């Protein structure tokens, strides 16, 4: 009902706020109140505001405003960067901070290429000459530089950087990249990219340098006098990240002296620049007003994601900070889902809400953990969140297949939700075809693990001591001796395991994958094996029983697996 919608604070509707054609998306989920109206009576409106949706840094999440919002749960920012937010302070108020990565990647990568091409081929200069009433001929000095076959250096090879590389491949560009973590061999080969461990090497060799990094203390002033002096005099600098990544005084000097050819900037500091700033008067600078995500489709996707994040946070406990999240990978044999069933049933976990997504096959059914007929009639969705607060444990149970064409989108939604929820670590329960193991994988234990760099120090030794082995990388072309390719990660039947692990490495998320090579046929024994080994690590149950499986409570829904028991009421 309309009166049940939560109240959300926004800056305004119009050119300086939320675009009118996306406000209808927000109104489907929320009561909206603009900042100007709110400030007329903050005492009246403040207690009912549960979320603040920011657009173009507004409303500013300042202490004076936040102190008027005692019921605030989420500050959701339209865009990827949250460098303008005091996240520790906001979190200290019990308020989550969320952003919208993933959905902005294509539009921002398009903008990077648009700036690159416009600067290289002097598109703006050509337009001004063409529309000038005094023009009688095209001056021969209007000469651009070649893009096809040139060398592109990408600094920051996350979602957006990789999208830039994909587009650049179509121009036959030689692609170099520098990133905190090297991408997989498969990713590099797909776009023909080469990793530069040293930033200096990339700067020396590139004709175009694209900045696609988050603003952090380490990246502030990343490109200054020294770095610009390493670039070719024919090189162009493109920035679609944040203005403070570049020392603008150093850039002005480099552009005036001919140290580099040109710069194309979608971001500056501040925005907009003061009207007398020297960058605005240089002929070899192209500046756009931070419009990298400004397409109708992208903005609507951002609104949907911001809505989803708040709905998810409403359906979650007030504090996931410090919780461990356990979830299945939707892999072969449904081993991960069965193991999660055992956790929820045995630990008597409470249903906290659902994970809102359009990437699973839509379906719903009765409560799989019901202990009586009344409970069984409770409707459950394909992705439910359960918690055991005393154990600081949450699980996300997924009961529907992932739509084939939306696997990547689903992973992006998961990563965004995990980041916004503040989990201390995520454990993915997965499985792989036993019959597709290679020779080295046939030796010893069928248990494998993968750990992202941010969790490596804390957990790798513990898993090894428990008898797990790190998932082997195998040759891309087994048996081909001359090729000598780098080994790659291969998880047959592993569902989203590999993609989610790679995404988590890119986003620096603390994530571990626990995987079992599973048998054919009945996979319930595999589920018991997986959950027992998970318990050996996390110590969720302490049982003196000699039979490890006896400590787990089988959910009532398992009686329906082979047609016995009370028929379920499906909707």
TrEMBL record:
Record GO biological process: proteasome assembly
Location in the cell: Nucleus
GO cellular component term, pick one: nucleus
Domain D-isomer specific 2-hydroxyacid dehydrogenase NAD-binding: 113-292
InterPro entries: D-isomer_2_OHA_DH_cat_dom, D-isomer_DH_CS1, D-isomer_DH_NAD-bd, NAD(P)-bd_dom_sf, Proteasome_assmbl_chaperone_2, Proteasome_assmbl_chp_2_euk, PSMG2_sf
Entry keywords, A to Z: Chaperone, Nucleus, Oxidoreductase, Phosphoprotein
Name the record gives this protein: Glyoxylate reductase/hydroxypyruvate reductase
Organism: Crenichthys baileyi (White River springfish)
Function as written in the Swiss-Prot or TrEMBL entry: Chaperone protein which promotes assembly of the 20S proteasome as part of a heterodimer with PSMG1. The PSMG1-PSMG2 heterodimer binds to the PSMA5 and PSMA7 proteasome subunits, promotes assembly of the proteasome alpha subunits into the heteroheptameric alpha ring and prevents alpha ring dimerization.
GO molecular function: NAD binding; oxidoreductase activity, acting on the CH-OH group of donors, NAD or NADP as acceptor
Family named by the database record: Belongs to the PSMG2 family.
Subunit note: Forms a heterodimer with PSMG1. The PSMG1-PSMG2 heterodimer interacts directly with the PSMA5 and PSMA7 proteasome alpha subunits.
Domain of life: Eukaryota
Domain D-isomer specific 2-hydroxyacid dehydrogenase catalytic span(s) in chain numbering: 18-306
């Amino acid at each position: 009902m309309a009166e049940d919608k939560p109240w959300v604070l926004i800056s305004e509707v119009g050119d300086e706020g939320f675009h009118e054609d996306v406000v209808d998306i927000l109104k489907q989920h929320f009561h909206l109140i603009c900042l100007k109206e709110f400030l007329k009576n903050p005492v009246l409106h403040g207690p009912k505001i549960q979320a603040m949706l920011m657009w173009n840094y507004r409303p500013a999440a300042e202490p004076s405003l936040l102190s008027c919002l005692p019921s605030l749960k989420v500050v959701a920012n339209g865009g990827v960067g949250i460098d303008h937010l005091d996240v520790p302070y906001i979190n200290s108020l019990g308020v989550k901070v969320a952003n919208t990565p993933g959905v902005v990647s294509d539009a921002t990568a398009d903008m990077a290429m648009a700036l690159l091409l416009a600067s290289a081929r002097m598109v703006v200069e050509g337009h001004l000459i063409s529309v000038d009433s005094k023009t009688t001929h095209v001056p021969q000095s209007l000469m651009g530089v070649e893009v096809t076959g040139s060398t592109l250096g990408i600094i920051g090879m996350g979602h957006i950087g990789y999208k830039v590389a994909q587009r650049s491949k179509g121009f036959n560009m030689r692609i170099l990249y520098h990133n905190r973590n090297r991408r997989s061999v498969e990713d590099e080969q797909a776009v023909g990219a080469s990793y530069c461990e040293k930033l200096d090497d990339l700067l020396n060799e590139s004709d175009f340098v694209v900045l696609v990094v988050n603003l952090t203390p380490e990246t502030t002033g990343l490109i200054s006098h020294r770095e610009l002096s390493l670039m070719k005099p024919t090189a162009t600098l493109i920035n679609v990240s944040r203005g403070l990544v570049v020392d603008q005084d150093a850039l002005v000097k480099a552009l005036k002296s001919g140290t580099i050819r040109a710069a194309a900037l979608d971001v500056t500091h501040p925005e907009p620049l003061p009207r007398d700033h020297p960058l605005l008067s240089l002929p070899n600078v192209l500046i756009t007003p931070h419009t990298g995500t400004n397409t109708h489709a992208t903005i609507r996707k951002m609104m949907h994601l911001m809505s989803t994040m708040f709905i998810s946070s409403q359906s979650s406990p007030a504090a996931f900070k410090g919780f461990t999240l356990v979830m299945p990978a939707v892999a072969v044999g449904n081993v991960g889902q069965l193991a999660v069933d055992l956790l929820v049933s045995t630990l008597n976990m409470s249903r906290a809400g659902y994970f809102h997504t359009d990437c699973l096959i839509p379906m719903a059914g009765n409560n799989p953990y019901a202990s009586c007929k009344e409970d069984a009639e409770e409707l459950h969705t394909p992705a439910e969140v359960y918690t055991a607060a005393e154990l600081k444990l949450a699980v996300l149970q997924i009961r529907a297949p992932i739509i084939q064409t939306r696997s990547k989108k689903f992973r992006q939604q998961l990563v965004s939700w995990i980041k916004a929820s503040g989990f201390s670590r995520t454990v993915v329960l997965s499985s792989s075809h036993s019959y597709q193991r290679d020779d080295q994988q046939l030796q010893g234990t069928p248990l494998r693990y993968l750990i992202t760099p941010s969790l490596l120090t804390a957990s790798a030794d513990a898993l090894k001591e428990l008898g797990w082995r790190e998932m082997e990388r195998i040759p891309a072309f087994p048996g081909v001796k001359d090729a000598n390719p780098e080994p790659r990660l291969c998880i047959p039947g592993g569902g989203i395991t590999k993609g989610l692990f790679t995404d988590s490495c890119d986003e620096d998320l603390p994530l571990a994958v626990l995987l079992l090579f599973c048998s054919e046929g009945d996979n319930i024994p595999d589920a018991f094996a997986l959950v027992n080994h998970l318990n050996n690590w996390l110590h969720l149950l302490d049982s003196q029983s000699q039979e490890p499986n006896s400590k787990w409570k089988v959910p009532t829904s398992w009686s329906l697996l082979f047609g016995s028991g009370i028929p379920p009421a499906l909707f």
